């Protein structure tokens, strides 16, 4: 029992350190990070300038994009394919997304529950609470994560407040997010190889899906929150 308590304390300390480092990076370097990621060519040049650390930097950018929403994820993901090709680019981007999601999820579960609870009480996020208390929460998560235009990053934090098992949550996240991550990475790879036909087709599908997600976001959220399925068992 003492060992378990010690393990939990160590985990909390480690998460607190990671969170503190993330906040420091956010405050100190966000203007520069945003400036670098505003241009695909500029971001590619920066990653390549770091040499062998390039993959690590790409993963770190993807982690920050997941944890801190203002960083444009599409630029990071497209650049991953542009620099490293579809396969390696997808591995680095997906790995960064999962690591960032783990930081956000466990931050809420072990440290930031009060903070996230406070945010969910705001009118802007109240609809999330209805989904979290539903026994179809896993289904809702999959829908939220797979449809472009819906608030995915905030739901990663919110999920940490529920009793959903981490393995179940990260499996849902991976399966739902992977198609669009692959689409973004493949766009970058096709641009590099000057395969403009596939680039236009994939881009058009992605943009159309994103626009439809934005247009019907409120209606979809209303339908999901109106669905009654009882208390969540996740």
> What fraction strand?
under 5%
In terms of per-residue confidence, which ranges show pLDDT below 50 for 5 or more consecutive residues? none
* Inertia-based shape: globular
**How many β strands by DSSP?**
0
The major β-sheet equals: none
Residue share in helix:
over 70%
Terminal residue distance: 27 Å
Q: Tally the helices.
A: 11
Give me the strand/helix succession: HHHHHHHHHHH
Class by SSE composition: mainly alpha
The average pLDDT score comes to 78
Rg calc: 19 Å
Name a few traits of the molecule:
single chain; 234 residues; mainly alpha
Give an account of the 3D structure:
The protein is mainly α and 234 residues long. The chain is 80% helix and 0% strand. It is built from 11 helices and no strands. The mean pLDDT is 78. 30% of the residues are buried. Helix 1 (2-37) packs antiparallel against helix 4 and helix 4 packs parallel to helix 8.
Layout of helices and strands:
Elements: H1 2-37, H2 40-49, H3 54-67, H4 73-110, H5 113-120, H6 126-132, H7 137-146, H8 152-159, H9 166-192, H10 196-215, H11 217-226
Helix pairs in contact: 1-4, 2-4, 3-4, 4-5, 4-8, 4-9, 6-11, 7-9, 9-10
Outline of this structure?
With 234 residues, the chain is mainly alpha-helical. Helix content is 80%, strand content 0%.
